Structure formats: structure tokens, C-alpha cells
């Protein structure tokens, strides 16, 4: 019985994900993710909708109190993979006379045993001899050789197959991938990582496939993942009453799917996987299976007769020989790569960085527009192989869509082929791979000239975790908020800039705009050629005139900050000029440069004021203002709008000056009095926090404490001020966001586009659960460095950076900054762990203040006995006299270790127990 409000199954009342989300104070999407992770007891999926028992409680943190068996329920796919990785490693270590890394014969032996055990688990141990014989013959290794190499009973692997039976069709591919981690005789291992199942599920739509239009091909098939899924979705053997009919259907599909793999042993793995999939399908439908079912099947899996790196990119496809796995037959490329109606593949990701010269020469000669990017070359080759009107579905890197260097390649694609859909997954799309290499998208296209008004679907999921990505891509309705329809010809009308095309459609919407370069000049910075010797922390040199304060960048900080470094500049950069590999850039503009930015782009654009007499180098380049106030520029560049464009224009890990120059802006925004005022407020608020960190150039000694107080009271005041200060900064930043959105007259779709790329503003986040002080206290304490500043900046993979603890917790834990600020204001004394950190940081700063430490005037070789220190404290901080014994004990017991960490293992002071003194120390020259 279905009721709109509730669902009744048997005698239990169920509720929708939306109703549960309201009750728990979380998003509907969060509830769905919890269901998908099996963390809500009794949750069921009916069609595309999750339903939850009405009385079920909200699950606790899944990382607490969980044993190994429970982990299976959280994410079976991920857990199974980690288990097989452990088993593979253990198997290698236990091999007789086997040293890591393993050789090819050992890898063959392990593949043979893993394959045999999988097949035995499906068919039965009574046929073990026949199974092992067939597998060994296929791999090309005899039983004696296997037994000589291996002395394992594989009992743990058999237990794995029983426990993780739903993942059997992936197991051999995973095992091979993890074997590669220990192999030294595989030149392809750096580009061999296997496709996540949810990606394959999305790219292969059974409704698209009609074998009358041609075969299916994976030209870089790896372990055959795409082909296995194709067989799975097309077989539909449940409707067949006899094994004969079911087998006929499976064999018909296998005859129409082709795979090529450059690695011969991996090609064998793909062949075995397809045979195993046939056994799985038959057995799942209730039919008896035997080794004969495995043996008589021989999929169309090929590898090259002659080893080489070209593979499916071979320029001589009409004559090069191919070997069909399982036979001795030789074919040529043109016969196999013929009558192909569909290509589904995850091609190798390899760029010019680290590529050998022979590959560069080959790619430049035959795929010049690919710019020595192997993945791009595969996109082009796939479109050349597939027949007219054929479909291609590929996992590709994101870079070809965005980088300027691939403009000609984009022109080739968008002018000649019809794009069906683009799903941007970002850098957190694989379970085992992160970083720029794993910044990926799913591309579906057709070999057909695009029609005049051709449109494609764009889905942006880069901000989500991998479980959420899987959930979204499995439910068309849930994808609606994350997708838009793009006119393909708008790419060409925007000079083949995908970034500008998307932005002009969703953000700019025909409004007049200019490039940021019309109002300012982002510049490259000087490369020293030797940062190790020429760039130091400012406290490592005692005010020597040849060392100059420098913006080095490298971290994340908005408005002001990261002023910890000096560079050996001299009068005109003469030392750097004489250093091999150096490059002096934009030196003449030092005096009229107002702003600097960090060139690391993982956390988004972050821009700061350049201090007086400060210069900039390569990792912290400068921005010279042409018109408008520097404060309005600073406000604009630190907005999510600007970071949105940087992420659009450059998916790489580095922010180049040229990308900032291309940010679209409105004409009058840089003379805005409101932006100028709000920017100054943010700078002032941020500076109030910087002055408490002794490794900042802005540090100020502690003011006199004359009213009766204590260390813990001072720590509490500092903690509460920091949080209130950050909350006020976030409020100012939100006002800046609102101003920019109004100035650009953005509608809801434009705002949603920005949120999909860079996330919500922290002030928009609402608390998703009850705030428990002990838990939040632990989280804050872990996030704070010894100097009580945020020790990490990126709360979520693919997200943007945070400027403080409050902002970090908003994005990581969904704790509203306003709620957290109120909680700390009213009950800050209950944050015991956090106050412990602030207390030690306060005592550390107190010691430095009393011995005369000042970033602007460093002194060395001065000392203060503990007795003199106590007299100074009584004189300047009489309000702390009650804690004097505790402070001196802390100095004697903890100061040295604390100070070393606080000063990044470059200490400037020490307690000397031999003389009971606190000393400023000089660095060795």
C-alpha cells in the first residue's frame, strides 16, 4: 500500500529520504548516501527511491567502533578491493625465492593460481585438475613451473571469494593491478589503472547498442571491464528456459565484442575474465556449469605480435600483426578494427611530462593536435576507428577540455563530431588514485557531423565524494540539479574555449563583460634557481640587508598572510642572476605591485596584499593594478566567482597568471566603495589573528596583563576572539559574494553553477546534526597547529581552501559557523583540549615577548635567567603572577620541544638547563 506521506510494508512504517532528512537535519542527498553505504538499518530501494524504517535512528560516525566484518557493510566494493590488495601482497611475500619486485614468471604463476581458484569456486573443486590445466595452458605456464614458484595453499583467497562473491568478476583485474605494484618487468604499469564500475555503468547504455550497426571494441581493454559489463547488460538470459538458449545468447554477444590490450599477460586476464563472466551468468540463472563451458568460449581479445608502445595507436594498422589470445592465429589491425559500431574504453593517461623521446616523436608525427597526450590520441583514434554514426564512450582526463594548449584538438572534436554528454567527475573519482592524473570526465560522442543546433548534456559532479558520484549516476532524477544542456556550437563561437562557453551560457548569459587583464596585470615571479639556499624563513637571518621579505606563496591564505620568508636579493638580484637556472622576472614592477597570489591551484585562487618593501617570486606571483582600488580587486579575486573561473579555465594544479587575466569582469566593479570597505574589514580581521602567530612577520608581543587573570583565562579570550573574528570575516566575505552576484545580475541557475564547481559559502551551510562540545573540541584541537592556526586547508577533495577552523568545519562537518560561534561564545570554557593548546601557545608567546623577540628587529645571543624572567613577568604581567610557578615549570619541561615544532624545526630560542636560562640563538651561517 503506497501512501504519499509514508510507505507501509508489512507491519512496518517507512518514510521517504526527504522526510528522514528533515527529521535528522541533514540533506536528502546525505540520507541517500548513507543508504547506499548500508549505514541505515532496514533501508530499502524501490525503483529509484530509498525508503527508511520510520523508527530508525540516525547513524553515528562510521569510523568509530567498527570491526573488519562491519567494514563490508559500509562500502563492500572498496573493502573488497583493499582485501585483495592485502592478499596479493602477502602472496608475493610468501612466494619461495621470490623477491620484490616480482618477475614476469612469478606474476604469470600468481595469475594462473588466482584464475584457477576463482573458477574452482564457481564450478567446484572436483574439477580442480582440469581447471588448472586449462588455465595454465591459456597463460602459457605448466603446472610444474607454477608449483616450483608457489608454495601457497591460497586458503585466504578462497575465503575472500566466498565472502565477497558479488565482486568475483572484478577480482582478477584488481589482483593484476596490485601485482603491478611489485613488478619490474612491466613497462605499462604506470598507465594501467582499472575503471570503476559506476563509470562503465554510465557510459554503456544497453538501449544504444544494436549489433546490426557494428561490433563493440575496447582498444585499450585492460582486464576487460567494459566488455564484461557489456556482456552483463546485454545477456538478459533470465528469459531463457534452457541452458542451450542461454549459452547461445551469451556466445552471440561474445562474438560481437572485441578487445585489444598492449600488455600480453593483461590481455590473457581479459580473456579469462570474459569466460568467467559467462560462467557467472549461467550459474546465476540456475544452470549447471562445468569447465567445458569455460574452455569452449574464446573471446575476441588481441595483443600485438611484436612488442611496442603504440598499441591501438599504431600508424600502420593495415599490416601489423595481432595475436588472438587462446589461439596461435595472426590477424592484422584492419581486420579487427573493422565494422566497429561502438567503442567503450578507459585509455592510458600519459602526458609529455616524463615521456620518452620515441613516444613524443610518434605522437607529434601522427597525432600533432594531441600535444603528446596519450589519452587525447586515443580519443582521436577511437573516432577514426568507429564507423559513421558509431558511438564512443570514454573515460578521459579533463585537461583536453580546458587547457589553452589543446585548443586545436577541441576544434577538431567539436567541429567534426556530435557530443552526447560530458560528466565532469573531478579528481576524486577513483578509489585508489588521486591527483591531477585522476582528474577525469566521462565522454559520450558520436561519429557524426554536429547539427546546427546540436546540444549535449553536461553533468558536474566534481565536488562530490566517490560514493555520492556512484549514487548520482545511478539515478537520473537525482542528477537533475547537477546537469545543464549546452549548445555545441557555442564552443566554436567562444573561440573553442570550453570554459568561456560554459560560463557564457550559465554565468554571463549575454551580459557585457571584459577580461580581468583590462584592469590589472597578473605577472610571473622570479625563479631563484636555488630556493633551498636563497629562500629562508625570516627568523633565520638577523636583519641582514641583502635578505629581503618575499612573497613565496605555496600555501593558502586570503587577504593577508604567508609572510614568513626572505630571499637573498642584494641590491638588484645579483645573487639570483648569477645562479644557474634562475630567471629574473618583472623586477621593475616590484614597487607598483599591490597584490600577490599562490600559484598552487588545488585549493582555489587566494590573493593577498603585498607588504611594504616586500618582493615576489615564482610561487607567490604579483598582480599590478591598472585601474580601480587594490582593495576592490582583492575582494573580487578572493570571491568564489573568481575561483569558479580559475577552476573552469585551468583544471591543473597550478594557477598561472594568464588564467587570472582571462577571468570575465564587469566594468565598474573595481571602483566599488562597498567592495573596498568590505575588503579592508577582511584584512583588518585577518590581521588580528596573524599578530598572535610568532612565525608571521605581523606578530606582535603580548600586551601587558595588569588585571588579575590566568593563563587559561587568556587562552579562553584568545580562542573566543579568534572564532568571533573569523565569523565576522566570513560575514564580510558573504556580503562581497552577494554584491558580485548582484552586479552580474546572476539568476538561480548561474548561482547553482558556481556552487556545483566551488561549493557553498560557509555562511550558507546549516548545521546537520546536534552539536556535541566534546566531539567538536576534539576536531578543533586536531585542526590547530602549535601556534593555534589551521594546520590544513582543504576539507574535501575537489573543494576549495579554508582560511580558518570555523570555515573548515563548516565544509567538512556541516557545522554552521554562526552556531559554532554562538556555542564557543557561551560555552567556550568547556573546550578543554582546545584551551590546552591555546594555553601552551600563550605561554610560548609570553616567553618570546619577554626575551625581546620581534620579527621586525631580530636579536641573537641574548639570554634571560629564569629568575630574571620571573621578575620581568611580575613587572609587565602582574595579572599572571598566580600562574608563575606553572609557567616556569612549563618552560623547563616543554618549551624546547614545543618551540621547535612551532618554529618549523628552525628554533630561534631555547631553554638551557645548565644555566637555567632562556636564550635567543643564532643560526649557523
Question: Based on the structure given, which CATH architecture of the largest domain is correct?
Answer: 3-Layer(aba) Sandwich
What is CATH's topology name of the largest domain?
A: Rossmann fold
- Tally of helical segments: 37
Structural class: alpha+beta
Strand order of the largest sheet: 9-8-7-6-5-10-11-13-12-14-15
Biggest pleated sheet: 11 strands, mixed
Helical content class? 40-55%
CATH superfamily of the largest domain: Vaccinia Virus protein VP39
Fold blueprint:
Blueprint: E1 6-9, E2 12-16, H1 17-24, H2 28-36, E3 44-46, E4 49-53, H3 68-74, H4 76-94, H5 104-123, H6 128-139, H7 143-149, H8 155-163, H9 168-180, H10 197-203, E5 215-218, H11 225-235, H12 243-255, E6 257-260, H13 264-284, H14 291-295, E7 300-304, E8 321-324, E9 330-332, H15 333-336, E10 340-345, H16 357-366, H17 374-385, E11 391-397, H18 399-402, H19 407-416, E12 418-426, E13 440-446, E14 455-460, H20 466-473, H21 476-479, E15 483-487, H22 489-493, H23 498-508, E16 514-515, E17 520-522, H24 531-534, E18 535-537, E19 547-551, E20 565-568, H25 574-577, E21 595-597, E22 607-609, E23 615-616, E24 622-625, H26 630-637, H27 640-649, H28 657-661, E25 664-665, H29 673-690, H30 711-743, H31 748-758, H32 773-783, H33 805-813, H34 817-827, H35 832-850, E26 863-865, H36 866-876, H37 884-902, E27 909-912, E28 917-920
Parallel strand pairs: 5-6, 5-10, 6-7, 10-11, 12-14, 19-23
Antiparallel strand pairs: 1-2, 2-4, 3-4, 7-8, 8-9, 11-13, 12-13, 14-15, 16-25, 17-24, 18-20, 19-20, 21-22, 21-24, 26-28, 27-28
Helix pairs in contact: 1-2, 3-4, 4-9, 5-6, 5-7, 5-8, 5-9, 5-13, 9-13, 11-12, 11-13, 26-29, 29-30, 30-34, 30-35, 32-35, 35-37
Amino acid at each position: 500500500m503506497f501512501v504519499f506521506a509514508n510507505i507501509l510494508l508489512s507491519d512496518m512504517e517507512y518514510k521517504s529520504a526527504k522526510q528522514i532528512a528533515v527529521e535528522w537535519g541533514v540533506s536528502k542527498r546525505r540520507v541517500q548516501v548513507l543508504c547506499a553505504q548500508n549505514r541505515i538499518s532496514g533501508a530499502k530501494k524501490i525503483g529509484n527511491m530509498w525508503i527508511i524504517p520510520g523508527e530508525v535512528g540516525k547513524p553515528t560516525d562510521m569510523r568509530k567502533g567498527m570491526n573488519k566484518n562491519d567494514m563490508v557493510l559500509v562500502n563492500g566494493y572498496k573493502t573488497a578491493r583493499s582485501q585483495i590488495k592485502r592478499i596479493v601482497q602477502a602472496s608475493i611475500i610468501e612466494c619461495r625465492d621470490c623477491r620484490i619486485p616480482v618477475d614476469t614468471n612469478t606474476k604469470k604463476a600468481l595469475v594462473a593460481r588466482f584464475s584457477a581458484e576463482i573458477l574452482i569456486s564457481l564450478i567446484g573443486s572436483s574439477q580442480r585438475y582440469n581447471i588448472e590445466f586449462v588455465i595454465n595452458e591459456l597463460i602459457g605456464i605448466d603446472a610444474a613451473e607454477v608449483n616450483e614458484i608457489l608454495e601457497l595453499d591460497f586458503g585466504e583467497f578462497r575465503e575472500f571469494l566466498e565472502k565477497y562473491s558479488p565482486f568475483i568478476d572484478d577480482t582478477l583485474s584488481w589482483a593484476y593491478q596490485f601485482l603491478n605494484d611489485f613488478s619490474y618487468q612491466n613497462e605499462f604499469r604506470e598507465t594501467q589503472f582499472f575503471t570503476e564500475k559506476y563509470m562503465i555503468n554510465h557510459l554503456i547504455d544497453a538501449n544504444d547498442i544494436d549489433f546490426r550497426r557494428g561490433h563493440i571494441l575496447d582498444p585499450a581493454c585492460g582486464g576487460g571491464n567494459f566488455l564484461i559489463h557489456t556482456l552483463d547488460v546485454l545477456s538478459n538470459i533470465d528469459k531463457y528456459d534452457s541452458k542451450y538458449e542461454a549459452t547461445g545468447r551469451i556466445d552471440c554477444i561474445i562474438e560481437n565484442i572485441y578487445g585489444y590490450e598492449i600488455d600480453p599477460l593483461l590481455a590473457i586476464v581479459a580473456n579469462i575474465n570474459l569466460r568467467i563472466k559467462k560462467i557467472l551468468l549461467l550459474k546465476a540463472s540456475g544452470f549447471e556449469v562445468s569447465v567445458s563451458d569455460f574452455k569452449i568460449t574464446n573471446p575476441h581479445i588481441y595483443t600485438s605480435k611484436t612488442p611496442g608502445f603504440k598499441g591501438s595507436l599504431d600508424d600502420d594498422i593495415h599490416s601489423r600483426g595481432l595475436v588472438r589470445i587462446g589461439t596461435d592465429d595472426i590477424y592484422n589491425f584492419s581486420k579487427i578494427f573493422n565494422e566497429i559500431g561502438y567503442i567503450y574504453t578507459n585509455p592510458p593517461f600519459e602526458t609529455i611530462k616524463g615521456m620518452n623521446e620515441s613516444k613524443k616523436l610518434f605522437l607529434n608525427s601522427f597525432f600533432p593536435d594531441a600535444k603528446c597526450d596519450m589519452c587525447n590520441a586515443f580519443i582521436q583514434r577511437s573516432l577514426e576507428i568507429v564507423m559513421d554514426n558509431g558511438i564512443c564512450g570514454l573515460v578521459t582526463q579533463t585537461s583536453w577540455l580546458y587547457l589553452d594548449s589543446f585548443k586545436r584538438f577541441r576544434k577538431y572534436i567539436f567541429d567534426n563530431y556530435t557530443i552526447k554528454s560530458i560528466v565532469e567527475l573531478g579528481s576524486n573519482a577513483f578509489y585508489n588514485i588521486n591527483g591531477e592524473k585522476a582528474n577525469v570526465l566521462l565522454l559520450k560522442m558520436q561519429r557524426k557531423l554536429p547539427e546546427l543546433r546540436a546540444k549535449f548534456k553536461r553533468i558536474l559532479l566534481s565536488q562530490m565524494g566517490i560514493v555520492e558520484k556512484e549514487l548520482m549516476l545511478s539515478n537520473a532524477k537525482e542528477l537533475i540539479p547537477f546537469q545543464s544542456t549546452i549548445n555545441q556550437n557555442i564552443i566554436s563561437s567562444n573561440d573553442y574555449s570550453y570554459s568561456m562557453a560554459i560560463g557564457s551560457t550559465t554565468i554571463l548569459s549575454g551580459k557585457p563583460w571584459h577580461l580581468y587583464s583590462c584592469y590589472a596585470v597578473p605577472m610571473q615571479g622570479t625563479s631563484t634557481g636555488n630556493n633551498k639556499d636563497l629562500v629562508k624563513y625570516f627568523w633565520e637571518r638577523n636583519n641582514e640587508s641583502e635578505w629581503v621579505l618575499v612573497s613565496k606563496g605555496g600555501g593558502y591564505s586570503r587577504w593577508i598572510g604567508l609572510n614568513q620568508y626572505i630571499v637573498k636579493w642584494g641590491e638588484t638580484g645579483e645573487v639570483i642572476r648569477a645562479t644557474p637556472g634562475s630567471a629574473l622576472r618583472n623586477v621593475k614592477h616590484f614597487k607598483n605591485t599591490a597584490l600577490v597570489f599562490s600559484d598552487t591551484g588545488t585549493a582555489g585562487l587566494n590573493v593577498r596584499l603585498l607588504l611594504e618593501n616586500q618582493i615576489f617570486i615564482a610561487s607567490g606571483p604579483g598582480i599590478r593594478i591598472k585601474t580601480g582600488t587594490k582593495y576592490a580587486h582583492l575582494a573580487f579575486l578572493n570571491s568564489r566567482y573568481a575561483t569558479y573561473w580559475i577552476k573552469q579555465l585551468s583544471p591543473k594544479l597550478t594557477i598561472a597568471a594568464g588564467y587570472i587575466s582571462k577571468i570575465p569582469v564587469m566594468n565598474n566593479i573595481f571602483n566599488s566603495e562597498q567592495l573596498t570597505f568590505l575588503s579592508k574589514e577582511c584584512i583588518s580581521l585577518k590581521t588580528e589573528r596573524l599578530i598572535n602567530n610568532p612565525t608571521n612577520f605581523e606578530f606582535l608581543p603580548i600586551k601587558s596583563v595588569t588585571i588579575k587573570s590566568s593563563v587559561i583565562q587568556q587562552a579562553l579570550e584568545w580562542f573566543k576572539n579568534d572564532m568571533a573574528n573569523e565569523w565576522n570575516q566570513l560575514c564580510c566575505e558573504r556580503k562581497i559574494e552577494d554584491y558580485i552576484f548582484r552586479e552580474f545580475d546572476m539568476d538561480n541557475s548561474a548561482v547553482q553553477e558556481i556552487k556545483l564547481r566551488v561549493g557553498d559559502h560557509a555562511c550558507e551551510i546549516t548545521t546537520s546534526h546536534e552539536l556535541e562540545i566534546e566531539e567538536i573540541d576534539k576536531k578543533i584541537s586536531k585542526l590547530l597547529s602549535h601556534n593555534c592556526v589551521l594546520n590544513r586547508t582543504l576539507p574535501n577533495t575537489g573543494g576549495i581552501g579554508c582560511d580558518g577552523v570555523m570555515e573548515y568545519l563548516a565544509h567538512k562537518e556541516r557545522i554552521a559557523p554562526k552556531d559554532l560561534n554562538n556555542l564557543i561564545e557561551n560555552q567556550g570554557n568547556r573546550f578543554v583540549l582546545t584551551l590546552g593548546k591555546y594555553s601552551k601557545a600563550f605561554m610560548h608567546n609570553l616567553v618570546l615577548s619577554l626575551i625581546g623577540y620581534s620579527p621586525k628587529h631580530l636579536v641573537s645571543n641574548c639570554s634571560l635567567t629564569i629568575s630574571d624572567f620571573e621578575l620581568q613577568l611580575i613587572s609587565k604581567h602582574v595579572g599572571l603572577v598566580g600562574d608563575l610557578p606553572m609557567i616556569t615549570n612549563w618552560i623547563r619541561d616543554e618549551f624546547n620541544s614545543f618551540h621547535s615544532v612551532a618554529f618549523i624545526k628552525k628554533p630561534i630560542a631555547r631553554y638551557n638547563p645548565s644555566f637555567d636560562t632562556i636564550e635567543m640563538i643564532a643560526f649557523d651561517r
